[in-house]
Amino acid sequence: MDPLNPTGARPMGREGAAQSSASAAPVVTPAPPAPAAPSRDVSPLIRELGLTEDHAAEPTALVTPDDLLRVARALRERGFMLMDTVGLDYSTYPERRPKRFAVLHNIYQPRDHRRLFLRVWLDDGEPLASLYPVWRAANYLEREVYDLIGVPFTGHPDLRKVLTPDDLEGHPLRKDFPLGETPTLFRDGRFLDPAAFRAGLTGQTGGLTGYRGELRRGQGDDRTPPVMPEGGPK
């Protein structure tokens, strides 16, 4: 009992104990730790499938043409889906590659967000099994690679061009495809010569673009940009 405040004293016994218990601070039970996020490392999966991991910026596995369907079916059984398919021409690549062409399949697991690229090396004209029997998404993806790179996909139900006219000869994304271009004229008289512009981009020559971009890199001399001849290009 507080001698200075006798009226504020709490009764003893069960009633007082109940009041003391009610006024005590509630006990806070700590929340259980959040489960760890699933690993996105696909290296164990690559080894499980008996594949070799390729040296690339993204997780990539090397697959032979004869083994592609087996690998695709195994990935589908694990919940993976086909997101994209692209073709690449390495004929002018500075480093040596096993074959001229490569087809890259972008495979994705939506539940744990794992991603894996399947790279298949191909010679010119070498066919590759279609993934349409495994993933229907391969339909237009493979038609685009067939159209722009020229890779034939066996087992595809309707392998036709999808982007270029039927009477266009060749495949536009091949490095040796001839480009029919014309110089681009700007209002102030500067112009871009396509052949020289490409040569400058690839490093074959300094290029003649009408721009002095090399000055921003500390190279070259200040000069007047070329002017389109009177009456247009000759």
What's the short story on this structure?
With 234 residues, the protein is of the alpha/beta class.
Molecular structure report:
With 234 residues, the chain is of the alpha/beta class. It is built from six helices and nine strands; from the N terminus they run ααββαββββαβββαα. Helices cover 21% and strands 17% of the residues. Mean pLDDT is 80; it is low at 207-219.
- Kindly state the mean pLDDT as a whole number? 80
Count of extended strands:
9
Helical residue percent band = 10-25%
The run of helices and strands is HHEEHEEEEHEEEHH
Write the layout of secondary structure elements.
Blueprint: H1 14-23, H2 43-48, E1 52-54, E2 60-62, H3 68-77, E3 81-89, E4 101-108, E5 115-122, E6 128-129, H4 138-148, E7 153-154, E8 184-185, E9 191-192, H5 194-202, H6 213-216
Parallel strand pairs: 2-5, 6-7
Antiparallel strand pairs: 1-2, 3-4, 4-5, 8-9
